[in-house]
């Protein structure tokens, strides 16, 4: 599933290609996503111009003039593709392009300058909705989200106040979107490895020093992932391969039974399940 860095790179890609373009045509090939694509609502965005694109948590907000916003969530396998009369472009590094993908195209927005935006989703867990811009942050999808991890609001004071009298595991806390918006399973594992903290440790056993390290590590890893992916935006037209794939830098995620890569640690990466989510960690150096 695309997490915050992947969605941020998609946002940057869409903004670079689509800002100030006007929607000339809306084509719905298959409306059966997580929520049914509402053709009546989508008819309202014809002849509207894209004025900005935002990310909130793992959601994309495509803001149009005349007070409309397209809200999109990529789910497990959702992806946006951009085409012009010459080529097809990827918008992030977490997927490859294949000719057979077209059978999973669900929605196409045709713009001026012969540019098209295609939403493709194999498993159909993503969704796209239309909102009035003034109501978007009060929508059920966004209203309860915690602070953005890269914002100043995600700090020591906030962290300590939130965990007061709580005893859940640190992994469950970091996965809670009401606590912190956009952090997913992959990056939670990597953060806790960097901090030498076992994912099953209870939050009431986390010291202030460790909290500071967690906050610092979250910001560091997310910035690195965005930078690493964003540096390859010009190469997203590649039909195969995954340029800018941060997976190449994972320390523990998906590395069960391999030797810990930390200097002077001979531990073996272990996989456990917490709240039905896989956690990868080194039991020797993560306490």
Write up what this structure looks like.
A hairpin with a 2-residue loop joins strand 2 (50-56) and strand 3 (59-64). The protein has 287 residues and is α+β, with helices and mostly antiparallel strands. 23% of the residues lie in helices and 22% in strands. It has helices spanning 4-18, 39-42, 156-163, 170-175, 185-194, 208-230; strands at 23-28, 50-56, 59-64, 68-73, 78-83, 88-90, 105-111, 116-121, 127-132, 270-274, 277-281. The protein folds into two domains: 4-138, MutM-like, N-terminal (N-terminal domain of MutM-like DNA repair proteins), CATH 3.20.190.10; 156-281, Helicase, Ruva Protein, domain 3 (Orthogonal Bundle). Residues 235-242 have low confidence and may be disordered.
- State the helicity in percent bands: 10-25%
* Strand segment tally: 11
CATH topology of the largest domain: N-terminal domain of MutM-like DNA repair proteins
The CATH homologous superfamily of the largest domain is named: MutM-like, N-terminal
Strand order of the largest sheet: 1-7-8-5-6
Strand content: 15-25%
Give the biggest beta sheet. 5 strands, antiparallel
Radius of gyration: 20 Å
Q: In CATH's first tier, which class of the largest domain applies?
A: Alpha Beta
Shape: globular
User: What is the number of helical segments per DSSP (H or I, 4+ residues)?
Assistant: 6
Structurally, the number of domains stands at: 2
What would CATH call the architecture of the largest domain? Answer: Alpha-Beta Barrel
Mean pLDDT: 91
Note the quaternary state here.
single chain
Question: Uncertain runs with pLDDT below 50, 5 residues or more?
Answer: 235-242
Order of helical and strand elements: HEHEEEEEEEEHHHHEE
Structural class based on helices, strands and sheet pairing: alpha+beta
């Amino acid at each position: 599933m695309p997490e915050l860095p992947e969605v941020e790179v998609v946002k940057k890609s869409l903004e670079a290609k689509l800002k100030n373009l006007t929607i000339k045509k809306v084509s719905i090939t298959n409306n059966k996503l997580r929520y049914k694509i509402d053709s009546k609502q989508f008819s309202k965005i014809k002849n509207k111009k894209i004025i900005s694109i935002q990310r909130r948590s793992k959601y994309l907000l495509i803001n149009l003039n005349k007070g409309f916003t397209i809200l999109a969530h990529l789910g497990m396998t959702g992806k946006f593709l951009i085409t012009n009369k010459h080529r097809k472009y990827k918008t992030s590094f977490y997927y490859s392009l294949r000719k057979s993908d077209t059978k999973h195209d669900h929605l196409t927005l045709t713009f001026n300058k012969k540019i098209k935006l295609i939403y493709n989703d194999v498993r159909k867990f993503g969704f796209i909705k239309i909102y009035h811009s003034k109501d978007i942050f009060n929508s059920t999808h966004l209203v309860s989200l915690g602070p953005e991890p890269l914002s100043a609001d995600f700090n020591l004071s906030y962290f300590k106040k939130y965990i007061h009298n709580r005893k859940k595991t640190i992994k469950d806390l970091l996965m809670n979107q009401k606590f912190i918006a956009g952090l997913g399973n992959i990056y939670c594992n990597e953060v806790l490895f960097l901090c030498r903290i076992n994912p099953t440790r209870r939050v009431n056993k986390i010291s202030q020093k460790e909290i500071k390290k967690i906050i610092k590590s979250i910001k560091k890893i997310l910035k690195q992932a965005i930078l690493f992916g964003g540096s390859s935006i010009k190469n997203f037209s590649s039909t195969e391969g995954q340029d800018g794939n941060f997976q190449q830098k994972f320390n523990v995620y998906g590395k069960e039974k391999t030797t810990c890569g930390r200097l002077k640690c001979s531990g073996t990466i272990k996989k456990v399940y917490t709240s039905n989510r896989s956690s990868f960690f080194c039991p020797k150096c993560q306490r």
